[in-house]
């Protein structure tokens, strides 16, 4: 019986795909773990308890059919598992690689709470879709009958690409505009290859281009066309730019040479991986080789930076974070990977100043302690008067998070309404902004968040845009 293949969590221990040794993986930007062999994937999938209420699916932003495709994998019905996985996600193999499963699906797995170790959902998801690509099961995007309407999408990140795919499927002409020379947003330029190899992203984008979606690279709204010009060109517009404005740190020496923004650093590294000419890397400004590196921050971007610096041959890499390990926002798995690779974490510490002659030479750090909880429930860091110290630093990377850019100003659209945080204000039922026919989705609405939420928002906004465009077409037909 099929049921006999499941509920094997007592007989089979949790097992992730083997990671390459820290010494080996610190020498390159390949992903650190291989994918499962077929018997291992089936065995790990069979550990699923097939819950009546699958908390893994409940806590997945996409509400993926996780127990169902685990069962199909355990039964060896891999093509069906892929089709079910692909039914709710436009990028399952990407989510399998970069989602913080320990905070989402796996962190809410029932057998995890029972002490048996969660089902390795992310690794199985990656295995299923990588196999589908290898076997030729990933079908082209099939555009529906032409509607005669066109959509402009500003931003080629997860939300924009997902909306582009769904809107193309219903027959709209789709144009995607992005400031970079390659589509993918942070998938391409923000996330390092050791977490997400770039070929995985590029094959998704090529599949979309083959469907007839038009990509306009190196295109900046406000410079190459105003938002109003795009509105005149298209029947509807989606803003899915993400949030790219780096948060600043208000300490003396913050403008010294060698103090750099995390995204500038990561983009330079990823461009080198593509083989691009990157003068700021080649002359050492955005290259950690031979340097004492201090990264400020405790999120996933900070983890990307410390692990990139290790691979670039830094002399030492330290991560300075004002809270403790238990209260950091980044993935605990990423912290463990970084520690294995030689990163030193300096908990409960914040920079007071960066000392420099011509370039930065030292970080003066203030010890911190955790005080009373704030409105979110997290304990606030406060200075610990009895503790301060200095760290040598030839490069300081600021990884303090991101805020929205001033889009009304940049886009030449003063009537585009924003919240007090600078994110775009939308009607949360229709996902439309203050401008008729202009929608918004992803981080530019919710603030800096996860890739999986960008995919979810792209899926949701495409449905709302399709509804609005149908009404628009009927209204115009009547008027004619």
CATH superfamily of the largest domain: FAD/NAD(P)-binding domain
The tally of beta strands, per DSSP, is 15
> What would you call the structural class?
alpha/beta
On the 0 to 100 scale, the average pLDDT is: 95
Largest sheet: 5 strands, parallel
CATH architectural name of the largest domain: 3-Layer(bba) Sandwich
CATH class annotation of the largest domain: Alpha Beta
Counting DSSP H or I runs of 4 or more residues, the number of helices is: 19
User: N-to-C terminal Cα separation, in Å?
Assistant: 62 Å
Count of the separate structural domains:
3
Poorly predicted regions are none
- CATH topology type of the largest domain: FAD/NAD(P)-binding domain
Rg on CA atoms, Å: 23 Å
Share in β-strands:
15-25%
Q: Could you estimate the helical fraction of the residues in percent?
A: 25-40%
Give the spatial strand order of the biggest sheet: 3-2-1-4-15
Shape: globular
Structural description of this entry:
GO terms for molecular function: 4 iron, 4 sulfur cluster binding; glutamate synthase (NADPH) activity; metal ion binding. This is GLTS beta chain. The chain has 480 residues and is of the alpha/beta class. The chain folds into 3 domains: 2-135, Orthogonal Bundle (Fumarate Reductase Iron-sulfur Protein, Chain B, domain 2), CATH 1.10.1060.10; 150-243 and 404-479, 3-Layer(bba) Sandwich (FAD/NAD(P)-binding domain); 247-401, FAD/NAD(P)-binding domain (3-Layer(bba) Sandwich), CATH 3.50.50. Helices cover 36% and strands 17% of the residues. It is built from 19 helices and 15 strands. The protein has helices at 22-25, 38-45, 55-58, 66-74, 78-88, 92-98, 110-113, 121-135, 158-169, 186-189, 198-210, 227-233, 262-274, 279-282, 300-311, 332-340, 407-410, 443-446, 451-479; strands at 150-154, 173-177, 214-216, 236-239, 245-246, 259-261, 292-296, 316-320, 344-346, 349-356, 360-373, 379-392, 395-398, 402-403, 438-440. The strands form 4 sheets. The chain has a 5-stranded parallel sheet, with helices on both faces. A 5-stranded parallel sheet has the order 6-13-7-8-9. A hairpin with a 3-residue loop joins strand 10 (349-356) and strand 11 (360-373). Helix 4 (66-74) packs antiparallel against helix 5 (78-88).
């Amino acid at each position: 019986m099929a049921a006999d293949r499941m509920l094997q969590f007592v007989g089979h221990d949790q097992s992730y795909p083997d990671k390459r040794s820290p010494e080996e993986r610190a020498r390159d930007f390949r992903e650190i773990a291989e994918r499962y062999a077929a018997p291992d994937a089936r065995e790990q999938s069979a550990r699923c308890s097939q819950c009546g209420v699958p908390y893994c699916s409940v806590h997945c932003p996409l509400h993926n059919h996780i127990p169902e495709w685990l069962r199909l994998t355990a039964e060896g019905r891999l093509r069906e598992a892929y089709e079910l996985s692909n039914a709710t996600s436009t990028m399952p193999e990407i989510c399998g690689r970069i989602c913080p499963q320990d905070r989402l699906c796996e962190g809410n797995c029932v057998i995890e709470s029972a002490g048996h170790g969660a089902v390795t959902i992310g690794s199985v998801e990656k295995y299923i879709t990588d196999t589908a690509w290898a076997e030729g099961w990933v079908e082209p995007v099939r555009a529906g009958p032409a509607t005669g309407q066109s959509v402009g999408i500003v931003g080629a990140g997860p939300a924009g690409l997902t909306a582009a795919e769904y809107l193309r499927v219903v027959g709209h002409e789709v144009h995607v505009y992005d400031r970079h020379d390659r589509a993918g947003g942070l998938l391409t330029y923000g996330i390092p290859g050791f977490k997400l190899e770039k070929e995985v992203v590029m094959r998704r984008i090529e599949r979309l281009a083959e469907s007839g979606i038009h990509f306009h690279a190196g295109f900046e709204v406000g410079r190459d066309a105003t938002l109003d010009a795009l509105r005149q060109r298209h029947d509807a517009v989606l803003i899915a730019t993400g949030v790219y404005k780096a948060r600043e740190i208000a300490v003396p020496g913050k403008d010294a040479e060698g103090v750099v923004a995390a995204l500038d650093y990561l983009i330079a590294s990823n461009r080198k991986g593509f083989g691009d000419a990157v003068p700021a890397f080649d002359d050492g400004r955005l290259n950690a080789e031979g340097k004492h590196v201090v990264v400020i921050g405790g999120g996933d971007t900070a983890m990307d930076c410390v692990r990139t610096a290790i691979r670039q041959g830094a002399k030492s890499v330290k991560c300075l974070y004002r809270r403790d390990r238990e209260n950091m926002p980044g993935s605990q798995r990423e912290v463990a990977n970084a520690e294995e690779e030689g990163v030193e974490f300096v908990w409960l510490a914040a920079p007071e100043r960066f000392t420099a002659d011509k370039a930065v030479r030292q970080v003066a750090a203030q010890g911190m302690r955790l005080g009373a909880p704030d409105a979110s429930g997290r304990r606030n860091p406060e200075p610990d008067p009895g503790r301060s110290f200095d760290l040598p630093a030839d490069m300081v990377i600021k990884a303090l998070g991101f805020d929205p850019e001033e889009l009304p100003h940049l886009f030449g659209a003063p009537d585009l309404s924003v919240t007090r945080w600078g994110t775009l204000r939308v009607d949360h039922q229709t996902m439309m902004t203050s401008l008729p026919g202009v929608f918004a989705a992803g981080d530019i609405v919710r603030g800096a968040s996860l890739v999986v939420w960008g995919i979810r928002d792209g899926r949701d906004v495409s449905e709302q845009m399709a509804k609005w465009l149908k009404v628009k077409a009927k209204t115009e037909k009547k008027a004619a």
